[in-house]
Amino acid sequence: MQRDLRGIPEYLEAESIYRQLWQPGTDQISDAAELHARSDGGAGLFSGFIVNDLESYRSSRICSVDFASGETRVITFGPHTDRLPKYAPDGRMIAFLSDRHRRGDFQLYLLNPTSGVTRATPRPQGWIEHFHWSPDSDRIVLGVAGYGADVAGAHGAIASRTQTDDMPSWIPELKVGNEEYRWRTAWVYDLITGRLRQVSPTGLNVWDAVWCGDGLISAITSDDCEEGSWYSARLVLLDMDGQSREIYRPQLQVGCPAASPYGSRLAFVEGLCSDRCIVAGSLRLLDLRSGACTQVETGGVDITHTEWRSDRYLLLAGHRRFESVVGLYDTTVGKFAELWASEERTTGSRYISVSGFGEAGYFALVGESFQQAPEIALVRDGKYVAVRSFDLMRDGKEEDCDVRRVTWRAPDDTEIDGWLLRPCAAGPHPMVMNIHGGPVGHWRQTWLGRTGIPSLLLIRHGYAVFYPNPRGSIGRGEMFARQVLGDMAGADTEDFLSGIDYLVDERVVDDTRLGVMGASYGGFMTCWLTAHDSRFAAAVSIVPMINCVTQHLLSNIPQFMSLFLADHYSNRGGKYFDRSPIMHAHRVRTPTLNICGALDRSAPPEEALQFHNALRENGVESVLVTYPEEGHGVRKLPAGIDYAARILMWFDQHMPAKSG
User: What are the backbone dihedrals phi and psi of residue 165, each rounded to the nearest 5 degrees, phi first?
Assistant: First the structure.
């Protein structure tokens, strides 16, 4: 495999798909995210992606949409990234984040929707990850990461840029742990006085912060600033004088905090989670006066989104097996009522999120599916109505393929779900199994035109693509997710292999041309499966964990390994050794393409390097591809084009779908 693929047919074909779906240089919006509805339900704001060319970073601008007419307008301009727009509760001002002064350094800006005037606010000592308006619209709480703090694995797991200094180039770097620049803090900006000040005390790391009424802040915090300390974070209350008080210490991980407008109740999600910013689980409701915490029954839905519509009504969204579900919880009667559920449509880049308006449970979303490009839609009284589509394909559709829901039984009789996408032509087809990250993750009907370009290429070339949701996946409740706890690469191994057996028995896939690929935990399992089963003709391992000991000691999330293995590397011969793919690499006979990012902090590139070297030492064909500007996953262009082309080339070389 050559280093520079530009100009070869596979690269040009991948580039062509990007051009068709994103229409670079046309100033058209090709994707939408972070939708926020105005309180009256008449309009909304969103981050709209407009691609200038395929040689630069995909940036977004703040856009507005009229829900009645579907008319959209771009309201901020420039080559920078503007994102996360939010109306003030009273509707008189819009806040958003922008890196217009330095790429990646997001700061708070305010936009007057009447005059169109945008102004910067004072900058805190760091870059802003998230923010929330106070109920009275007078203040904004900011979650600020210090310059040099790591970006979450969900967003690439790279270290942010530290402040420049005047040191000579030969001066060494020092790492002692808990460096001052790694801490995350909470700040409050007062729109009336124009004052910005830090409200979290020294020594308290703030992962998320929301208002509890107009005078208190609820925050997810830890006493350590390292990325892995998030796994044991707790909930505290902060006042404006910087005093904190613990209000809840969870057994698992917590996220999605939202307080009722008057600050009497705090809703949040608790569950087994693999990554910060990717949280799903059970809904908890904490009475901030009595301290009583209750678990809310949500009809088998793993909750991923919480939003108070009033002190009485709480809008919720989440996943239940194949379905994306939205419902309304009435705190007065203690009842959860489903408003909308769909297997064909979902929303949200990772898990489902929506934006509500009013108390009746009406909401807006960016709807999509495997084959349906994003569209802004409204749901009222359970009826889904598309408002504005961002499908830029001239024929109005993407790749023709058959989308099939699949259910099978693992050897221990556990029922497992998944999706199979295959060409419309008669089979059986060669198949590539794509394993999701996590292990606590989920495959659902997200648009392939965003991150699934390799799958589109494979389907176009005659391959079926299999997306299994093994034990550990969300959408099946806490107990199903917990089955992977302490048993990664245990029973879940058979979930994958039995799924392949089922598809082979159904005669929809060709058992002589089976491939496997995956990223993060999916990369780990890809290497594990090829070491324990000889059926795979080719494999692609992406940003994997290969050696549990080095993963623990080199990554920025050592707590992940000890949590999901329920062990420690000091236990010689324990799971750190037995469940490391590197310890079984001598068994592998499958040609493997190893892909990693040089800047990856959560699955360092040394992991992929170890597996590549082990395969080469054992005479197995292996190629190592390291992208110098990428972290946890390939997210930028044109690296993404190269990445998609290499995956197609690897499977075409070792298990071609077509003769010749």
Answer: -135, 180
